[in-house]
Specification:
Radius of gyration: 20 Å
Distance between the termini: 16 Å
Strand content: 15-25%
Bound molecules: zinc ion
Order of helices and strands: EEEHEEEEHEHEEEHHHHHEHHEH
Largest sheet: 5 strands, mixed
Number of strands: 13
Number of helices: 11
């Protein structure tokens, strides 16, 4: 490797791809593009190759945090929701283009490594990262070891069952999973059930959705709650109770010193989302309460993690 090695990190999302160059000091340059959905399974790897060339960098290694599910052995994204193609090769096309080592892991696993290396977990050997976004996901470092599992899906916290009797079915087909209530894709459905028998007349939430529950979005719900709308606050409180259970399960299972939280739902509404968890979690815990905070790395947390796995073999080989 060169005296001052350069690395590339990439964050593959269903809607955006982020690519950055950097080293131990952090990110030098970053590019963000809409994820290619026109050119078949080869579209994403070709797009990343193009973005790395645009950054005009010659990398010594490449790290990738990606939507899953993944096959870590073949370095492919196998069959991902919200994307029109299956079996997307990532590792091989990048290796043959640049002739360097390419490592790929699930995006939340990358994020927790980013937190350990660049963020709030620099001094912790037990860190958990949670994304509250369109879906819910997690990454765990326990005793300074990244948990991956047989297929790289060791920490599917969004599918913790919170209510086995619930009529609300998760995208995976099971009833009462955490993500089915609190994932950004599912919050509108959860809220619509809540307001079905409520007189909404004159409420801010009703005005924002122009009287039609079909228009309801998470953004409207949190906007109305932040302005004191009683109905919106009640729904946000229910979401807070369910998030508290999910976080308590994490603490009881993984015993982290610190939990950092990212994803658009949390990053856009930090107080409404995190305060109820911090206030109420203790009653569900057997383990000592960890520090819970918003990730200081913001929307770049996966990108930082991808850079970190590129430059360090400690967590991913
Ligand atoms: Zn599920």
């Amino acid at each position: 490797m060169r005296q001052n090695p350069h690395f590339i990190g990439a964050d593959i999302g269903a809607s955006k791809i982020r690519v950055a160059s950097g080293d131990k000091k952090g990110i030098f340059k970053k590019l963000v593009e809409d994820t290619d959905k026109k050119h078949g399974p080869q579209g994403i790897p070709l797009q990343i190759i193009g973005m790395i060339h645009k950054l005009n960098d010659t990398p010594d290694a490449i790290g990738i945090g990606s939507i899953g599910p993944l096959n870590l052995r073949t370095g492919m994204i196998t069959n991902t929701p919200n994307y029109p193609f299956e079996n997307i090769p990532i590792k091989k096309p990048l290796e043959s283009e640049f002739g360097v080592k390419v490592k790929i892991i699930n995006d939340c696993s990358a994020a927790v490594v980013g937190e350990r290396t660049f963020g709030a977990g620099k001094n912790s050997q037990n860190i958990f990262y949670v994304t509250l976004s369109t879906g819910l996901g997690g990454g765990a470092i326990v005793d300074d070891h990244l948990l991956l599992g047989k297929d790289g899906n060791a920490v599917e916290i969004g599918h913790f069952t919170l209510d086995p009797n619930s009529k609300i079915i998760c995208g995976c087909g099971s009833p009462g999973h955490w993500e089915a209530f609190c994932g950004g894709n599912n919050i509108p459905n959860f809220a619509r059930r809540w307001i079905k028998n409520v007189n909404m007349y004159g409420s801010l939430l009703n005005n924002l959705m122009e009287g039609d529950p079909k228009n309801l979005t998470p953004k409207m719900l949190f906007e109305a709650a932040s302005q004191g709308d009683i109905i919106a606050l009640e729904i946000v409180e229910e979401i807070g109770k369910l998030n508290t259970l999910g976080f308590a399960n994490i603490v009881n299972a993984y015993d982290p010193e610190i939990i950092t939280v990212g994803g658009s739902i949390a990053l856009n509404n930090p107080d409404l989302v995190l305060s109820p968890i911090k206030q109420n979690i203790t009653r569900y815990l057997i383990n000592r309460k960890p520090e819970i905070l918003l990730t200081p790395l913001g929307e770049n947390v996966v990108l930082y993690g991808s850079l970190a796995i590129a430059m360090d073999d400690r967590y991913v080989n």
